[in-house]
Write a structure and sequence with these properties.
Blueprint (H helix, E strand, L loop, with lengths): L3 H15 L6 H21 L7 H17 L23 E3 L8 E3 L2 H15 L5 E8 L2 E8 L2 E7 L5 E3 L2 H4 L16 E11 L2 H14 L7 H8 L5 H6 L3 E12 L14 H10 L10 E4 L1 H13 L8 E8 L2 H7 L9 E5 L4 E13 L5 E12 L2 E7 L3 H6 L3 E2 L2 E5 L7 E5 L9 E2 L13 E3 L6 E3 L5 H12 L11 H9 L16 H5 L6 H14 L4 H7 L7 H10 L11 H5 L6 H12 L1 H12 L7 H5 L9 E5 L7 H10 L3 E2 L9 E4 L5 H7 L5 E4 H8 L1
Parallel strand pairs: 2-11, 21-22, 21-23, 23-24
Antiparallel strand pairs: 1-6, 3-9, 3-10, 4-5, 4-7, 7-8, 10-11, 12-13, 12-16, 13-14, 15-18, 16-17, 19-20
């Protein structure tokens, strides 16, 4: 897509644009579009970014600012044009240039042999060259580019006409808003592909949805197909979708001859390469061109064996005759082409009986219903229990005890109940009753307005205490190796653990532990070494480990960078917390509540006495930086930098961030719409008031 020289040139321009430069606004807009497009491609298509997120954001904001001053300079393929602003959009029905056909299916080697035999008979050839590629499990989409610009994206619909979902598709950053088809003399082109949600995006979306008590997505496929017709493009953006493109259904060349001299679309494998070179995600790296059906079968089976390792869901492979001329010779039925066939992987759905429902209490007190199932084999594992999330989910899926249910395991995504099968009811089914008391400590459960989750709010509830300890020692938190969930539970039951600080007093119980089965000298030594080592973990891991509601790893990092000592949070107001990156009302309230609780403060002091680090080391170690002992405060909206990044820049150079204007403040950096802080600072002679630009100069 980009030659080495082009990459060098764009990186040079990137560097220039990040510094003050002499480009005119018009030139800047042009260069910014080019540079941002390149970096989007590196990030979203190749997953190999060449600049930091903050640098991308800085450049993006520059473009937004320039375009808002010069609306006449906005082009339809400017990276800013992805932003969807038409709420409640209607989806017009539009005809496809060429109907969207389906594929015939095969399920085993014999089916493929049959397909190959027919193709050879029809063509009179002895051996056929096939291109084999993954069958992406998502929602099909058709894109039209005219004069290199994406002009329309249409759903499959009835195959002849679909719905215009262009605004939503523009939210998908790996789909280019423009591509240099004119380089090949192509004026108009219709491209087919599949919109998918990666396993990672799916899992992270659902984790957030569960935390926020909003609806969880059933599986990545439904998540992708359900998103195409969403009313608000911003909701589409939130799903972090992706698209793979694998077919050119139509193209028109202009008078101008293709610059390359020959038609790149003579082979299907060339099409994949062309799309890849144009900046699309095509299965260029996953495809294989083979001669003869046996190699096709081998490749399909090999791919099936490693399907769980892929970052996205596939439900099979697609086998295509590689020569386009031969494809045309073989032709189509009214339903599917005769030159292609899907090889479907083994199903990962099964039906079973929902026997009972148990209610589990998590570390934040959320009570989660778990369906106990009659054990069933599904895609390599036996499934006997599945979380059914919350009361609303149970209603939505119409679940009752005794129901037959359809379950599905999508790749390495945890099994889900797709739906109940009410048709199979006998009348002996029993409604699922949600408890009104905590199943562990018996205190009354509460549900906050607008939330789907019932909670036990007794923070001493045993179930919560154990879950909090499990979370604290877990890999993403303090990462205390050899201290798995089972050991935590065992130690808690035996009274060796009672709360988080008790982890660091376990060495007093060495004798008792050595009497337990499976705890020889070596494993005890390992455990104690791991506990001791964890005391050196950086502050953000400790913060994350505390399990404060809504504080995930990213927020924990922001928090760790915002103070010199963890207990500084005890004197921060909700408003001050909300000044931090990504901390909204809900998160600020939760953090504030945590540090207002005396028991929590006592626990943190206890941890410090036990040798854990409550200080932000990064802040302390920067000595001799150019900003040593200089204090800063940012106010108003910064145009080029994210506030948290600007603050980190100060800290990296040894400076400190203050939370309010006082005589201790050296610099107030003012962005747009600065308010009371600026007024206050003007009254203190010693405070230097500087702009963002001046700050950038200073930091250089
Ligand atoms: S080719 C005329 N290739 O599967 C040939 N389809 O079950 C058009 N699909 O409608 C289809 N991955 O939505 C093709 N690599 C791939 C595919 C693929 C997924 C979808 C597509 C199609 C459906 C048929």
């Amino acid at each position: 897509m980009y030659t080495e020289d082009q990459v060098k040139e764009i990186m040079r321009l990137t560097g220039e644009l990040l510094q003050p430069n002499n480009y005119s606004d018009k030139q800047s807009v042009e260069i910014l579009c080019k540079v941002l497009r390149f970096h989007e491609y590196r990030y979203y298509v190749l997953s190999e970014p060449l600049i930091a997120d903050i640098e991308y954001d800085t450049l993006y904001k520059k473009l937004v600012e320039l375009e808002s001053r010069h609306p006449n300079l906005v082009t339809p393929d400017s990276p800013t044009q992805r932003v969807g602003n038409s709420l409640n959009q209607q989806f017009e029905t539009v005809a496809h240039l060429v109907p969207m056909l389906s594929l015939d299916n095969s399920y085993n080697g014999a089916d493929l042999l049959d397909f190959d035999r027919k193709a050879r008979e029809l063509s009179g050839l002895e051996n056929i060259k096939y291109c084999v590629e993954p069958k992406f499990d998502g929602a099909s989409i058709s894109l039209i580019y005219e004069k290199d610009i994406l002009v329309r994206a249409t759903t499959r619909g009835d195959g002849v006409a679909g719905e215009d979902v262009t605004n939503n598709i523009k939210q998908i950053r790996s789909i280019p808003l423009s591509a240099p088809f004119s380089h090949y003399g192509i004026e108009q082109i219709e491209i087919r592909g599949e919109i998918i949600m990666t396993k990672e995006s799916f899992a992270s979306y659902n984790t957030k949805a569960l935390e926020a008590g909003t609806t969880v997505l059933a599986n990545p496929r439904n998540a992708a197909s359900g998103s195409l017709r969403m009313k608000d493009p911003k909701d589409v953006a939130a799903r972090n979708l992706d698209g793979f493109f694998y077919h050119v259904s139509y193209y028109k060349t202009g008078d101008r001859r293709p610059e390359t001299g020959d038609d790149p679309l003579v082979k299907h494998s060339n099409t994949l390469k062309l799309l890849w070179d144009m900046g699309f995600r095509s299965p260029e790296r996953e495809k294989k061109v083979v001669t003869g059906i046996q190699d096709v079968i081998d490749y399909c089976l090999a791919f099936e064996a490693k399907r769980d390792e892929l970052p996205y869901e596939i439900d099979g492979m697609v086998v295509k005759v590689d020569e386009i001329a031969l494809q045309e010779k073989l032709g189509m039925t009214s339903h599917h082409p005769r030159w292609a066939i899907a090889f479907k992987f083994k199903a990962r759905q099964a039906t079973t009986t929902l026997l009972d429902v148990e209610f589990q209490v998590g570390r934040t007190g959320a009570v989660t219903p778990v369906a106990k199932l009659s054990p069933v084999y599904l895609g390599g594992v036996t499934v006997s229990s599945i979380s059914i999330h919350n009361e609303e989910y149970i209603k939505e899926k119409d679940l009752q005890k005794g129901d037959r249910v359809l379950i599905e395991r999508a790749g390495d995504v945890i099994p889900q109940i797709v739906r109940s099968i009410p048709e199979a009811r006998t009348g002996n089914e029993v409604a699922i009753q949600f408890p009104s008391e905590c199943p562990v400590c018996k205190s009354v459960l509460f549900k906050e307005e607008g939330e789907a989750v019932w909670r036990c709010i007794n923070i001493e509830c045993e179930a919560q205490v154990v879950e909090r300890i499990i979370h604290f020692v877990s890999k993403d938190a303090m990462d205390i190796k050899s201290f798995g969930e089972a050991n935590v539970r065992k130690f808690y039951e035996l009274g060796l653990l009672s709360d988080i600080p008790s982890i660091f007093r376990l060495s007093d119980c060495r004798l008792k532990i050595s009497e337990l089965e499976g705890f020889g000298k070596k494993s005890i030594d390992n455990l104690f070494t791991a506990i001791e080592a964890s005391k050196q973990q950086p502050l953000y891991r400790l913060i994350y480990g505390l399990g404060i509601r809504f504080v995930g790893e990213t927020t924990a990092k922001t928090l760790a960078n915002a103070v010199t000592h963890l207990l500084d949070f005890a004197s921060k107001t909700e408003e001050e917390l909300m000044q931090l990156e990504d901390v909204g009302t809900k998160v600020a309230k939760s953090i504030f509540g945590f540090f207002m609780n005396e028991q929590n403060i006592a626990m943190l002091k206890d941890l410090e006495l036990l040798g854990l680090k409550l200080i932000n080391e990064k802040k302390e170690t920067v000595v001799g930086g150019s900003l040593t002992n200089q204090s800063f405060l940012f106010t108003g909206t910064l145009l080029q930098l994210k506030r948290s990044d600007a603050e980190a820049m100060v800290e990296e150079k040894g400076g400190i961030i203050l939370s309010g204007v006082s005589s201790k403040l050296n610099y107030l950096v003012v962005g747009e719409d600065a308010g009371s802080k600026l007024e206050k600072a003007k009254k203190i002679n010693t405070v230097k008031i500087i702009t963002e630009e001046e700050f950038l100069q200073l930091i250089k």
